[in-house]
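Incident log entry.

Two folding requests arrived from the same account within the same minute. Monitoring flagged them as a possible duplicate submission, but the sequences differ. Recording both here for audit purposes.

Request one:
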Amino acid sequence: MLSPDEAAEYLLTTRGVLSNWRYKGVGPRFVRLNSKIVYRLSDLEEYVSERIVETVDSVGR
């Protein structure tokens, strides 16, 4: 489990951006444990994986 600060660092963004994403219902999945927000590494990896942009040169690799 990663804290919002750790998740933001992993995603190269800020804690504030993650907070806005949660408010808007976008961004990576997160877990609410009592009053704490945490992120599973697997969810962050999936979020990044879904945003891979295929280029012409990368097709067939």
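Request two (distinct sequence, not a duplicate):
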Amino acid sequence: MSDSRDLRSQTVDAWASTIPDIDRQTMETVALIKSISEAVDRASDQACRDLDISAAELELLVPLRHHNGPLTAARLADMLHMSRAGVSKHLRRLEDRGLVVRQASDADRRTAEVTVTDRGRTLTDSTFARDLAAHRALLQDSLADPTTVAVLRRINSAIMGRMDELT
């Protein structure tokens, strides 16, 4: 068990001993989701190590790579549930390295449309293969159970539905 999971479990236990009627199930669920997310992020960071791209940049390039037509930075941020400022910062870095191009939109000159360059497509394809392999190695035991992905889809759908209601 990793140190972060130990700390999260200890935190749940400490809160529960301080406030016996606290919602322990919600705390434990959030701790599990965060732990899984961090493990997947670490696997992506490992896959991108020693390459001309970060895991966060790859996360932007992957949907851009196969999207029909250009996307705006704002639309990309919304689709990926990321901050617009973070997306803009990463796109600027990708553009500086010639991996994406931003051009003023014909529909609204104040808006830039983002497209992947040939160099960006090549790097995305090779890096995404490494990223996917790292995730497969991380998840291989969990994916042996055919119900795992179905359960994760249901959880994701329920959470995203609640997010839409809250916004």
